[in-house]
Automatic annotation (TrEMBL):
GO terms for molecular function: ATP binding; ATP hydrolysis activity. Residues 2-256 form the ABC transporter domain. This is ABC transporter ATP-binding protein. It comes from Actinospica acidithermotolerans. Pfam families: ABC_tran, oligo_HPY. SUPFAM superfamilies: P-loop containing nucleoside triphosphate hydrolases. The keyword Aminoacyl-tRNA synthetase does not apply. Keywords: ATP-binding, Nucleotide-binding, Transport. The lineage of its organism: Bacteria, Bacillati, Actinomycetota, Actinomycetes, Catenulisporales. Belongs to the ABC transporter superfamily.
Length: 327
């Protein structure tokens, strides 16, 4: 449904540019929940902004394409849409709930007004009674009592406001929902509730979800696939169950070791020593090599390609590279 090819995003230009996203290939399939995980600063939000063309300066897409395949239509490159086409893509086809989105509700309008305004703006022919019915339905979809339609944003909890934002995002029945979870504003229980609700709605409306979070145990439970980002690159992408059972990339292993498991055997929490790379001056070879406990000869010299180890699994690590991908 959405195919990112060789996508790169920078902040700024020239020598001082921050290379926040580098040569990312990533596919979001129809109806799936794809989790995107990685430490703070690994480029997750930048990827989401870049692929939806919502980057603010000094952010610039430095290269690549984002192919959108609507059912029965020719694929289009989102990065080359006109402004009018882009507006349609953003609302009618892709809905985005960004980090801190719950603070973007207008404080002086009731929730009812904000929901019905979204519908009116995009479907001006609808009647007021119809818009109100749709707003009620959206509230019930995201599990908020209907009488809360009359509330102002400050009268709702953070979690409720986030759910209102999801309701708004779903107002126009999008094909893709991108959700960039705030990691500080919402607690883990709330993140879990929101993701579980989104997964249920997905089963009903058949949209694809890109869910961004630090919390791998959450993704293991709810997502079909997980992509792991490190230093602006995807270092592993796998079906969730495989990644959780047998992470291939040493960084994925470290990330999994940083979170308590919700299910299965207890693991010792280890964390990852060292700090994320400087995106202005990336280490040569494998970006993770300065922190990798398993680094060996080629790692500091040559960058491992993201290569398939099985039909559904890709990993960028010399431990898993087959001879024909070595050169
Ligand atoms: P988090 O988990 O904390 O949300 P993230 O993975 O979403 O992190 P990004 O916000 O995408 O990370 O940031 C990626 C890199 O780009 C970081 O090093 C960040 O400092 C840098 N960056 C982000 N926004 C800007 C900006 N406006 N100008 C310069 N650098 C930026
Ligand atoms: Fe570690 Fe080498 Fe694999 Fe990089 S390529 S993750 S340094 S083993
Ligand atoms: Mg972010």
């Amino acid at each position: 449904m959405l195919e990112l090819k060789d996508l790169s995003v920078d902040y700024g230009v020239g020598e001082s540019a921050v290379h926040a996203v580098r040569n990312v290939d990533l596919t979001l399939h129809r109806g799936e929940v794809l989790g995107l995980a990685g430490e703070s600063g690994s480029g997750k939000s930048t990827l989401a902004y870049g692929m939806t063309r919502l980057l603010a300066p000094p952010g610039v897409v430095a290269g690549g394409s984002v192919l959108y395949n609507a059912a029965g239509e020719e694929p289009v490159d989102v990065l080359r849409l006109t402004d009018a086409e882009l507006r349609r893509f953003r609302w009618a086809q892709t809905a985005i709930v960004f980090q801190g989105a719950m603070n973007s509700l207008n404080p002086v309008h009731r929730i009812r007004t904000q929901l019905t305004d979204v519908i009116r703006a995009h479907e001006p022919d609808t009647r007021p009674a119809e818009r109100l019915d749709r707003a009620r339905e959206l509230m019930s979809l995201v599990g908020i009592p209907e009488d809360r339609l009359e509330s102002y944003p400050h009268q709702l909890s953070g979690g409720m406001r986030q759910r209102v934002m999801i309701g708004m995002a779903l107002a126009l029945r999008p094909q893709i929902v991108v959700m960039d979870e705030p990691t500080t504003a919402l607690d883990v229980v709330m993140q879990r509730q929101i993701l579980s609700r989104l997964v249920k709605l997905r089963e009903r409306f058949d949209f694809a979800v890109l869910f961004i979070t630090h919390d791998l145990s959450l993704l293991a439970e709810f997502s079909d696939r997980i992509a792991i980002m490190y230093g602006g690159r995807i270092v592993e992408s796998s079906p969730s169950a495989d990644l959780y059972r047998d992470p291939l990339h040493p960084y994925s292993r470290g990330l999994l070791g940083s979170f308590p498991a919700l299910r299965g055997a207890r693991r010792e929490l280890t964390g990852i020593p060292g700090s994320p790379p400087d995106l202005r001056a990336m280490p040569a070879g494998c970006t993770f090599h300065p922190r990798c406990p398993l680094a060996f000869d080629p790692c500091a010299r040559r960058r491992p390609p993201l290569a398939a180890t099985s039909p559904a699994r890709d990993v960028a690590c010399w431990l898993h590279a087959t001879p024909d991908t070595e050169d």
